[in-house]
Write a structure and sequence with these properties.
The chain is α/β, with parallel strands linked by helices. The protein has 12 helices and 9 strands.
C-alpha cells in the first residue's frame, strides 16, 4: 500500500514526536482548534484515516467521540489501537473497509501527502464521501507547495544542493522525491485541494491555512511557551485562516467539505 521509502520513514518513528514542539506544536494546536470548530458534537463516529499513532484520535476519544484509526503502517495501528476509546486497523485510504454512510466525520490527515497521483487523491476523497453520513464533515490536510522552499532558508537546508534540487522539483511538479529530509510526498498548490475534493463529489465548505506564515517566526518557541501569547496567537490566526493571501505561506492547509446533498 505504501512506497517502501515512505514505510521506512514512518517506521523510523520521527513522526511520534514531531508535533510536540516548535513548528510541529503550532501545527498541532491550530489543527486541534480547527477540529473543535468543524466536528459535530460528541459523541460522534470519527474515522481517522492515516491517523498514525493516534495523536488526534486520543484527545478526540477523551472528548467523548468514538474514533477508529485506519493507517497503512502496522506499528502505528498497534499504538493507536492501544489508546483508551480508540480502535484501529491496517488499511488503505483508497479502499476503506468501512460501510457506506456509517461515520459522522472523516479525517484525512496523512493520505493526501503521500498519494502522488491526482487520481489516487481524488479516490481517497471519494472514499471519505462514501462512508460519510448526511450532515457529516470531511477534513483533509495537505502540505503547502512552497513549504520546502521556505523551510530551506529558515533551517539552513538550502546550503545543500541536494535539498535545492528537491525544492526545484516540488515547485515544478508538486512531487517531493524523498531523500534524507523527508520522504516521497505531494505538496499541494493552494488551488488544488478544493478542486480534488469537488472532483470526488464533495461540497467544499472552506479551505483554511493551518500555521500561516507564523511558522517562520524566530520567536515562535517563546510565543508557544507563554499561555497568554499562545492564546492571543490562536485567536488572531482564527480570524485570518481563510484569507487567500495567507494560504500560500502556510506549511499545511485543511480543506473542510461535506456531502452535496447537505449544501
Amino acid at each position: 500500500m505504501l512506497r517502501p521509502d515512505v514505510l521506512d520513514y514512518y517506521n523510523r518513528g520521527g513522526e511520534r514526536t514531531r508535533l510536540a514542539a516548535g513548528t510541529g506544536l503550532l501545527e498541532y494546536l491550530r489543527t486541534w482548534d480547527i477540529l473543535e470548530r468543524a466536528l459535530p458534537a460528541a459523541p460522534a463516529d470519527i474515522l481517522d484515516v492515516g491517523g498514525a499513532t493516534g495523536v488526534y484520535a486520543a484527545p478526540l476519544a477523551a472528548a467523548g467521540h468514538r474514533v477508529h484509526v485506519v493507517d497503512p503502517v502496522p506499528d502505528h495501528v498497534a499504538a493507536a489501537g492501544a489508546l483508551p476509546g480508540v480502535t484501529a486497523a491496517v488499511g488503505d485510504a483508497r479502499a476503506l473497509d468501512v460501510a457506506d454512510a456509517s461515520v459522522d466525520a472523516v479525517l484525512l490527515f496523512g493520505p493526501l501527502y503521500h498519494l502522488t497521483d491526482r487520481a489516487d487523491r481524488v479516490l481517497a476523497w471519494a472514499e471519505a464521501r462514501r462512508v460519510l453520513r448526511p450532515g457529516g464533515v470531511v477534513l483533509g490536510a495537505t502540505i503547502g507547495r512552497f513549504a520546502s522552499l521556505f523551510d530551506g532558508f529558515v533551517k539552513g537546508y538550502a546550503a545543500d544542493p541536494l535539498f535545492v534540487g528537491l525544492v526545484r522539483d516540488v515547485l515544478a511538479t508538486g512531487v517531493h522525491g524523498g531523500g534524507p529530509y523527508f520522504t516521497t510526498a505531494y505538496f499541494h498548490h493552494p488551488d488544488e485541494p478544493a478542486a480534488e475534493a469537488r472532483d470526488a463529489g464533495l461540497a467544499v465548505r472552506r479551505v483554511v491555512c493551518v500555521e500561516s506564515a507564523l511558522w517562520m517566526a524566530g520567536r515562535l518557541p517563546e510565543v508557544l511557551a507563554s499561555p497568554d501569547q499562545r492564546a492571543l496567537m490562536l485567536e488572531l490566526l482564527r480570524g485570518i485562516e481563510e484569507e487567500p493571501a495567507m494560504l500560500g505561506t502556510s506549511s499545511h492547509l485543511i480543506t473542510v467539505a461535506g456531502l452535496l446533498s447537505d449544501s
